[in-house]
Design brief:
Two copies of one chain form a homodimer. With 308 residues, chain A is of the alpha/beta class. The first copy, chain A, contains ten helices and eleven strands. In chain A, strands 3, 4, 5, 6, 7, 8, 9, 10 and 11 form a nine-stranded mixed sheet that branches. Chain A has a two-stranded antiparallel ribbon with strand order 1-2. In chain A, helix 1 crosses helix 2, helix 2 (21-27) crosses helix 3 (32-46) and helix 5 (105-119) crosses helix 10 (280-303). The mean pLDDT of chain A is 85. The structure holds a DNA duplex (30 and 30 nucleotides).
DNA sequence: CATCGTGATAAGTTTTGCTTATGTTAAACG
DNA sequence: CGTTTAACATAAGCAAAACTTATCACGATG
């Protein structure tokens, strides 16, 4: 089998340009015999002579001309390849596929997406909104680079980093606004509206209410926090929402927000990725951008709810 | 400077295809450490990881995917390069630029061109018709591969091979058809029509007539043998034409052909090329095709002129 | 917990490729 | 017409690259 090397192609191109072994060799930073040998090897492999050596002239054969004509584009493509690498090595660049759970995505995305694409110029951000289980599956299959969800996950193959903690707030009908905040244990007797099965936020809420066995009879499942809040506004019950959703979701509903006394329910939001992902360092940078973006924002939203 | 090799690109492509170091290595006919090392070197040079190694899974990084996507076309181009060489090595193929002098071209070309393109399938024949001096110049400059002209040339850098010898015939007005053929020395007193300056055939004719100094007064210069013959038919004088031109040029003119007694004037037609031309062997084959084609043809034309 | 699959690493050997020095050939020059 | 010069080929020696075999390390799996 033939075994042409890029070196030979570079030498051949130089020789074609300079029409002179010595100068071509100098241009390639090697000595003339080195270049001569490579050209000779190349010609031997090809079975045809590329260069017609005269005593004082060097000229391409017809075949050599056709050959060199094709060599140029090849070498340029290889150079592009090296450029591609150089462009990618320092900062995160190109496609980043990030999954976010539904109780985070709509609130986090608007403030974070802009900062990410500003920080990482040339970043091609792909976001997928799915339940935790599906995100973890896609992460394992390599169809996602990272995911933002509620910690802990506890998968051994996944690296977890915390982004921020946030409280859960009680959402009541506006008519209840001035009532005292019920203690934790009182919740189990109230009509608690929850997200449908599969949302981790549902489990976290149930956990806080110390309601071991879900009682489907009494709870209407909503497919989004937005729906739940509207249901509360209609007097169908109460619900919990994470703090980051508060200002958005309660703006257009007749509901009142209340903060629980300690122990306050809360969740830890974090980012995960495969431990084997070589973009780990860049993903840490992404995590930091999210942290920086959300830190002030979370605090600001907390101030909107009087501590009751 | 980066120094990516084709070998690395081939290994990377194989690894991307097989998703497995061992199998990719086998496909490349090397051992796994060899392939591993090359991939590692490649990644180090690029400054980015191409493959994400899991314990049981191997997956392309986003960068690796973009990289391999570009590698395919490059490797295919290189393979095409090797195909090009294989196609060219056995027989003459591709462009052949051949120069022919005007007193040969129109007669030789029709019978030879067909035979050449039949013999050398895929031959791309380019013919240039010029005077000897211009042909030699173009040959030296590499703008022609070979030339067919009258020998000898005597250039040290040129290889000469004979193709055939041919007589010069006397062209007289038809009214002179039955007169005896004038002896060589009588020609200098006749009104001899010749080609314009620069044609070697002019010099050869003059040489035969032993007319050292051309006498422009008495000679009208024609730019082609065809014109000369027509002038003879109009009674303006006599001329000489090479045998191969005889049947074509005298068919439509009121002239008579006559063969000289010994010593008959003649010329040797041959082929020349640069000694450094690597196509020498193939050019010898071309010469042989021309010889074979013309041998019978010259003899046949000779029979048309009675030996007087 | 032991085993297996898989890639990384180590040591040793072959191959490649480079450099310096010298040979060869043909054109150019006096 | 012999000498010089230009230019590529060849030779010898050496350094670096690349391959092979053998072994290690690690995580998944039963």
């Amino acid at each position: 089998m033939l075994n042409v090397t890029l070196k030979q192609l570079r030498y051949a191109e130089a020789l074609a340009r300079h029409q002179h072994f010595g100068r071509a060799a100098a241009a390639c930073s090697v000595t003339q015999p080195a270049l001569s040998a490579q050209i000779k090897d190349l010609e031997t492999m090809l079975g045809s002579v590329l260069f017609e050596r005269g005593a004082r002239t060097l000229r391409l054969t017809a075949f050599g001309e056709a050959f060199v004509e094709r060599v140029g584009p090849i070498l340029r493509s290889v150079d592009e390849l090296e450029d591609l690498a150089r462009a990618a090595q320092d900062r995160l660049i190109g496609r980043l596929r990030i999954g976010i759970i539904p109780t985070i995505a709509p609130y986090l995305l608007p403030v974070v997406a802009r900062n990410l694409t500003d920080t990482f110029e040339g970043l091609d951000l792909h976001v997928r909104e799915s339940l935790t289980s599906k995100l973890l599956e896609e992460l394992a299959e390599g169809r996602l680079d990272t995911a933002i969800l509620a910690l802990p996950i506890g998968e051994p193959g996944l690296q977890e980093v915390a982004l921020f903690d946030e409280e859960f707030l009680l959402v009541r009908p506006l008519s209840d606004a001035n009532k005292p905040v019920p203690p934790q244990e009182a919740l189990r007797h109230m009509k608690l509206l929850l997200l449908e099965e599969g949302h981790c936020f549902r489990d976290q809420a149930l956990s806080f209410c110390e309601t071991q066995a879900p009682r489907p009879r009494e709870m209407l499942d909503g497919s989004s926090l937005s729906t739940l809040v509207q249901m509360v506004g209609a007097g169908m019950g109460v619900t919990l929402i994470p703090q980051m959703a508060a200002s958005v979701e309660t703006r257009s509903a007749a509901v009142a927000l209340a903060r629980f006394q300690a122990p306050q329910p809360q969740r830890r939001v974090g980012m995960v990725w495969r431990r084997t992902n070589p973009l780990a360092e860049q993903l840490q940078q992404v995590a930091q951008v999210v942290r920086d973006t959300t830190a002030a924002w979370i605090a600001e939203q907390a101030g909107e709810v009087e501590p009751v």
